[in-house]
Structures
1.
Amino acid sequence: MKIDIGDFTASNDDPLVLIGGPCALESEEIALEVGRELKRITNELGIGYVFKSSFDKANRSSVESYRGPGLEKGLEILDSVRSELDVPVLTDIHTSEQAQPVSEVVDVIQIPAFLCRQTDLIVEAARTGVPLNIKKGQFLSAEGMTNVVEKAKSKGNEDVMLCERGAMFGYNNLVADMRNLEVMKQTGQPVVFDATHSVQRPGSRGDSTGGNREFAFPLARAATAVGIAGLFMEAHPEPESAKSDSATQIPLEDAEKTLRAVKAIDEQVKN
């Protein structure tokens, strides 16, 4: 299965694609800074690039946590990134009503892991005809994603990517099972590995999620060695001061080193 996004193709056999950007939309300036640098790097390496950021983080640990600028302002920023940088963009939705307005701005709609079994949400997203990136829930087996794909395809949308982002390993911990990548590839859909959410420690800080960003790079290399369509990776100019996922986003300055390494692995695997 091949999915056309912008001027490149995402499939498990084609060159690796990057989905990347700051976790939450904090400002247009930060979005453009991150997007511009990731575009520079991916252009040099010949990697297809999709900018990612969220207008609303609706599943934060605390009611006091920063969620984002909201739908209207968030779509304005995403549209600005899309037009100014000339890159496809991706964002996630949390309610069925958001599907249509979001589809008018973005190139890929993402279904969050916690919501991957929400039938109405997936069906409405699929109805837009926009390609989907559906994250596998931390609670769900890789085999269970077959039903998720069927929900989307029931509305005629074949352009579905499946994203691995770790599985619950006891409380406040995740483990990345690389077997899941192979299992989800059996659906015939492009498979993406989320390197930064896979190293989260959910709720480990009490009122927020912690994590270990130092493991994102080795996990990205391991997943790429399986032979996948894309890598999902969040980056920030100053991760420690990020308003969301401060423990897991990689420093923007480290992105080039990471992408050069996974590019080399991807070429070896697919050649």
Note: The helical segments are 28-45, 71-85, 99-103, 119-127, 145-153, 179-185, 216-226, 255-270.
2.
Amino acid sequence: YSLVGTKILKCELSGNDVQWSGDPPNCEEIHTKVPQKIPNGEFTNSHKDTFEYNEVVTYSCKPLNGTGEYFLVGESRLVCSGHNRWSSDPPECKVVKCEYPILENGRLVSGFGKTFLFKAEIKFECLKGFYLEGSSTIVCGADSTWGPKIPKCIKG
């Protein structure tokens, strides 16, 4: 419930009489409107018009026809956290695919594959006589780029 109206009332003297400084507030049930629809995705209980306080919707992505797949980027669970307020913005359904990482004078140690999709993690090492500059482990991010950036192997 949410308090609607003046929170604090004062007992005031008015001539020979006393009265409250205003009308008492009301407690109204908290409701949230339907969350935002997302392209290529859906959420649970989408048939409802309103949601009660602390009620949860869970987003998921629809299957993608052809090559690749949609990945949910952002929070999958949204909670009704106030009057017409959700706990976070809705997520996105994106096709995320990173390019094959090439490391001159180095090689992949783990995470081998032909395609690298969202959250794919790979690990590098440098060939003998070279040292690694940057992170040895990188992850395919939501924007289809490696993070942190692909390291370098420097002659030592």
Note: The mean pLDDT is 92.
3.
Amino acid sequence: MDNDIEKVLYSRDEIAGAAKRLGKELTRDYAGRQPLVISVLKGAILFTVDVLKEFDVYADIDFVDVSSYHGGTESSGKVDLVREISSDIKGRDIILVEDIIDTGRTLKYLIQLLEEKGAHDVKVCTLLDKPEGRVVDVKADYVGFNVPNEFVVGYGLDYNELYRNLPYVGILKPSVYQK
């Protein structure tokens, strides 16, 4: 898999540092509260686990699965709900954990869904933010790294369900997906 990577952007240690920093920020901001942490499957699961290890607050966890890439390298523009949240979120403080914010469509869809279900407050924590890719106006409240407008994989992010298990985030060589 390493041979398919053009350049490593964020090492295992840099990612661990970002998770620790964000966990401490969340601990400070949510002291005395019991938020519901919702991890966006499949990509955000590794990041969610690492942030939660640094989050010293009582919290519940749930998962939601959405799809917009459908195996490609660009968002299809359509967001499909694959797995619904199982928790009652009415009146809850929500921390939505994402792997990457690119176009913003998925994030906008999820925030609207949570608000429609009666969430008290929705904050977004993301490993990667790609502002250059944005087509809708959304933003994260907690950001690990701003990422260039490249197709990245690793540490949960995939291409065609592969590369999620790389311990770093890197730019995938175009030759891999332009076959």
Note: The mean pLDDT is 93.
4.
Amino acid sequence: MNQTEKQSSAADKTPHSGQPVVGVIMGSSSDWDVMKNATDMLEQFGVPYKAQVISAHRMPQDMAEYGAAAYDSGLRAIIAGAGGAAHLPGMMAALTEVPVFGVPVPSRYLRGEDSLLSIVQMPKGIPVATFAIGEAGAANAALHVIAMLSMTNATLREQLRAFREKQTNTARAMTLPPAPKN
């Protein structure tokens, strides 16, 4: 997978305006189907991001360089998705002071439960905010990042409020089919 970069003005009050403020990384291009849910959400809110493959096992030097440069390059959050042993989110958290949001990607044999446990069981002092396995986890990781960024960006905060209000109104408008008559 090639690197994907989207720029927007929604994060105007973040450092390096116009540059990516969120890194979306994954261990393999096969993780893209899940991680695209994070980038879709970031795009919906106009948050500039850069998505790329950074494998903890196959590219350890690249991973270390990415983590070391994350803050100075303008990143204020990293969404890291990984399957299997899922070392990427935890290793990235150990390499940078930028908050890391871990997304367990479903694995072939254990449905992502191995990934979830690997990401959530970080040792004291190296936190990774961990989300649900799969698509919902990727979208929620992005929403959590958006909420964090909105604390210093009134425009983004208003977009998030509107998004949540729309969800609420959609749920309130839901109807159930009539109960069958016995």
Note: The first helix runs from residue 32 to 45.
